[in-house]
Structures are given as C-alpha cells and as structure tokens.
Give the backbone structure.
Amino acid sequence: MDTMRIDVLGVGFDNYTMEEAVAEGMRLIEEPGAHYVVTPNPEIVEVCRENADANRAVNGADLVIPDGIGVIYGAKILGTPLKQKIPGIEFAERLMEQMAAAKKSLYLLGAKPGIAEQAAVCLSKRYPGLVIAGTHDGYFQEDESVVKEIHDSGADVVFVCLGAPKQELWMEKNGGATGAHLLLGLGGSLDVFAGVVQRAPKIFQKTGMEWFYRLLKQPSRVGRMMRLPLFLLHAMHSKGGRR
Ligand code: UDP
C-alpha cells in the first residue's frame, strides 16, 4: 500500500475512508506475520521531523491513518487532500466490532496500573464475542517479560497505549516477537475505554474542535499543542516551496 501514501511533511498517510481502513486492518489480522498501525496527529508529525527514530517507526507501519482534523488541514494546504480524518479511537472501536464477530482475541497494553483491566471489563461488555487475551500496565522496565506474556496469551491483536512516540518504537521493535498479527498504537485510548477519561462531546468532534476541548480540560497540554500552529505554518511554507 506504500505507493499510494500521501506525504504530509515527511509522514506518509494511507488515503482511506474509515470503512476502507477497517477492512485493511481486518485483512492484516488474517495475513501471516506481524503488522502495526499508527495514528499520527500534527504533534507526532512534528516529532517525526525532529526525531529520526520516531520517523522511521511511524513510516514503517503497515497502516498510517490521520488521527484528527489537523492532518486533514495540512494535507489540504499541501494540495494533496486526504479522504477523511480517522480518529484512532474510533478506528479501534470499529475494528473491535468486527473482531468480536470473528471471535478474535485482544491484548491491552498500557496506561496506569489497573486501567487496562478496567478497560477489559468495559470492552467485553460492550463487544460480546470479543476475547480479551490479557492486560498489562504501561509502566514496565523490561520489554522481554511483557512480550512473552503477550506471546503466551495467543492474542491476535494488541492495543499498545504508551503515548507517542514510545508506542511506535515499541511496536517496531517488539511487534514480531509478540506473535500477534496486528498491533495498534492508540495513545490515551485505554483511559477512555476504562471510563476514566471522557472524549469531547459530539459537537466538538463534528466541528473539528476536539483538540480545543482537550485543551480546556487539560490546560497543561498547551505546550504540546503549540506544535499544531507550527505544523500548519510548516505546511504552508512547504507548499510555497513546492510551487
Ligand atoms: N503511558 C504509559 N506508559 C508510559 C507513558 C505513558 O502507559 O511510560 C500511558 C499514559 O498512562 C496514557 C497514555 O500512555 O494512558 C498516553 O496518553 P496521552 O493522552 O499522552 O497520549 P496521546 O494519545 O496524546 O499520545
């Protein structure tokens, strides 16, 4: 699929609708070997511009989907629009619906101790048929024992929720050894699935203002979010250069 990627400031995005992306995710679960999915937002694209390891891990993914409206704006500014935004958490929800129907198993890795277990309880209620193969918090020192646990659980899919770019580097390094067919880097999603953190109300999501809601709720994110205007400036500058 690499050939069809749309370059947004050095990160290649697959140009899919939500339906197409989920179908591709399900296809990868059936394919032999390990695959991983990343869901970069403008902040992560900016990190990839400064950090070669993050850049390699992100672009090395089998599926790269635009999490959030910022990347959509960036692609538009660059004159190479993407079909739609695909929030990572919604992608995960749609995938779990289909995994439940296909009786696939899921391992939850990440977040503070107790959260992944809580998310497991909520998700098994919400998606009857979905098998939770195991859970582990995201504050471990050695990869080896965690990788072994995932491997022994026989999970088909792993949600890796360690924040970016830690989760992307982790999947690149350890994906194959887990024995799973698909790993997804999903940031703070386990906190949402566990009911500890709420997503923005629908009106914010629909109007592309979810980032603003998160900023109001967690003003400490302002430093990280300053990367968004920077990202848009870089896109405009790069477009100027391309002309
Ligand atoms: N986290 C973790 N291990 C770490 C650092 C972070 O499991 O070493 C978890 C953290 O508890 C949170 C998630 O990773 O659940 C990151 O959340 P954040 O909202 O920062 O992620 P984003 O989606 O913005 O990258």
